[in-house]
């Protein structure tokens, strides 16, 4: 009898991957047959087996691996396009005991980010770069990349890469091998099982070098990308073995790890950034400025793109600043907005704001059902949810204050449902959910309409109608 056992994920990866809307998923977002999933597993396994997870900071690129932070169970930073190596250099200096993994694709590393990589390698900065080469820009649809093969057809080279105009494939390993400082450079592939095992060994070795503080390591991995190369997965793997390896031969270009003694870990306690800048955080922190009475209040505003979500957050932050508080406003951009969701975070404080990120809001302003579905559970016990009353499923929390407001109906009645954000702003002011007077919030709202008298009139009307509605419910 065959006994079926659950194959557990490595401890180096999260057990489930909490992507959009807080939905935890068991699978990655990568296409079937793509090498990224395999490489993530190899990195996660090595991290866990070497016992370096708590010291590791993985830096995700822009590209298909942009969501690396959903997968690697360690410290995570997401870099601007091509800047992962520069970030790793910075973290290596401020956190001497950290283990840095810069995970980058060929578009990210070999084009816009090449100089950052080259300079980090030349300085011998302490990091392992996992360079995933699939010969095109994957996420954006398969455009020509620095590593695209001569003659290869891509979205931007439909007749094939013409070396007379587009140059030749860039060999990152060979270029970096000209430098003195790098400790270890190897090129591998994940196109079949034997190659995956070689890649596994190389990734482990690169991370051992980081564990021991020896310096710069780069592992290039030829990684099939069936979707972006418009191939069937098996044909794509064969293409990588038969064609890509002709241009990018596998093998170790250098390994000086045995010559270099392991560095003694520096156990000095380095200050956190908040300690360094003297910033206090937490709900009981009081400032010394004009609003020394105000503790930290974390607000999340969410709804559909086009509902004025970002503007509502901005008005709350501007109103708070007018009232003498410190305030930050942090919009959610990028891939998370593609589903039509929009959200922003506002932090208000009597002291300088330490971080603009809001994971557990004191106040959630939800303009639609998906916003409630996504953020209701994140609100701290004792917090408040102010939400559009017409949603199908009101939030089921008994440990927070729930305030439904028919913002859409009020705004619609006044002349335009798009002013629903103003209705929620007025309700927020009425219930004193932030330490800002209603007049200051209204002034912030009106400041944007000084040259639009009709819009100004409408928003004033909505603000007044909402205050009246709230008073009638009291
Ligand atoms: S687009 Fe290409 S690189 Fe990106 S996940 Fe799909 S196959 Fe992989």
Strand order of the largest sheet: 4-3-5-6-10-9-11
The named CATH superfamily of the largest domain: Thiamin diphosphate (ThDP)-binding fold, Pyr/PP domains
CATH topology of the largest domain: Rossmann fold
Low-pLDDT runs of 5+ residues are 283-288, 335-339
The oligomeric status of these chains comes to single chain
Profile the largest sheet: 7 strands, mixed
Q: What is the level-2 CATH architecture name of the largest domain?
A: 3-Layer(aba) Sandwich
Radius of gyration: 26 Å
Number of domains: 2
Beta-strand share of residues: 15-25%
Helix content estimate: 25-40%
How many alpha or pi helices? 16
Number of strand segments: 17
CA-CA gap between termini: 68 Å
> Which CATH first-tier class of the largest domain would you pick?
Alpha Beta
Can you characterise this structure?
This protein has about 475 residues and is α/β, with parallel strands linked by helices. The chain has two domains: about 15-260, Thiamin diphosphate (ThDP)-binding fold, Pyr/PP domains (Rossmann fold); about 280-474, Pyruvate-ferredoxin oxidoreductase, PFOR, domain III (Pyruvate-ferredoxin Oxidoreductase, domain 3, 3-Layer(aba) Sandwich), CATH 3.40.920.10. Helices cover about 35% and strands about 20% of the residues. The protein contains 16 helices and 17 strands. Helix 7 links the parallel strand 9 and strand 10 (about 215-220). Helix 3 (about 105-110) crosses helix 4 (about 115-125), helix 11 (about 310-320) runs parallel beside helix 14 and helix 14 (about 420-430) runs antiparallel to helix 15 (about 440-445). The longest helix is centred in the C-terminal third of the chain and has 21 residues, at about 455-474. Bound molecules: iron/sulfur cluster. Iron/sulfur cluster binds near residues 34, 134 and 227. Iron/sulfur cluster binds next to helix 8.
